[in-house]
Amino acid sequence: MNPSLSIYENLGGAGALRKLVEAFYPKVQKDPLLGPLFPEDITPVMEKQYMFLTQFFGGPSLYSDAYGHPMMRARHLPFPVTPERAEAWLACMREALEEIGISEPLRGIVLQRLSGPAFHFVNTP
Ligand code: HEM
């Protein structure tokens, strides 16, 4: 891992972000707490997440260019995000990072960066 580069670049750029969301969403869909919140056709969600995580980790601003200000907490308000669901989301992300071969310390850094937003999106106990 090169600390002078972005997380996006450390992960491996566009190809790695694609692999990450492709590893992540099947786990989300299988998770008993998360699966029921998502539509059967997960492809549009995967594409948006690819665009969002790309910019979140310091790559090109794909999400904002297409959809404007992310307002991610607001976009999650229609869904009951509990602390348990935030934990489950992060656990799926940890498994996905492992699956695509992202090792420590980068894996821990990525998860730490995502845990802030995940718990910030909690909108119901
Ligand atoms: C805390 C637990 C979380 C839950 C339960 C959750 C759940 C959801 C759900 C149900 C959707 C909508 C799917 C649809 O379009 O029908 C969604 C969309 C999305 N989520 Fe999450 N999410 C969580 C955390 C996060 C985190 C931590 C991030 C990124 C930092 C994130 C990024 C996104 C993005 C980019 C979208 C697409 C937004 C759009 O429609 O433009 N989510 N999420």
TrEMBL record:
It holds the Pfam family Bac_globin. The keyword Heme applies. Transmembrane segments: none annotated. The keyword Signal does not apply. Keywords: Heme, Iron, Metal-binding, Transport. It comes from the Bacteria. Signal peptide: none annotated. Belongs to the truncated hemoglobin family. Group II subfamily. This is Globin.
